[in-house]
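Researcher: Go.
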Amino acid sequence: MRATAEFRWPARVYYEDTDAQGVVYYANYLRYLERARSEWLRDQGIDQPRLLRDDRMFVVSRVEIDYIVPARFDDALVITVAVAERRRASFKLTQRIVGVDGDSPEYCRAEVTIAYLSASKLRPVKMPESWLLES
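Model: Structure:
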């Protein structure tokens, strides 16, 4: 995984994402974060279907999330991903959901720990060296 500036992925709040008051249901923030992580991995050149064929997979092992301001129906969002820490068999990401312009609020912030596992044994395995480099 190359060290890059904060990865940004656009999204919009659809009616199906909201509760009766038109506010994003709290669990749906996790869906936005997951989709952005998947797009970030693709941007990093990591082919997740191939990883599975090679008996490897990523799993979320921990999430700490702060809900700051509620997002509402039809809000345009940007979900960010940034590597905060790398380890031999895991990494920690900082993710944010913000509005598309500088005047928009930060809707939520999360620290997400991702483990790299053998898919068949469900045990941690060392990530390739090239993913551990800072460049």
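Model: The first strand starts at residue 7 and ends at 12.
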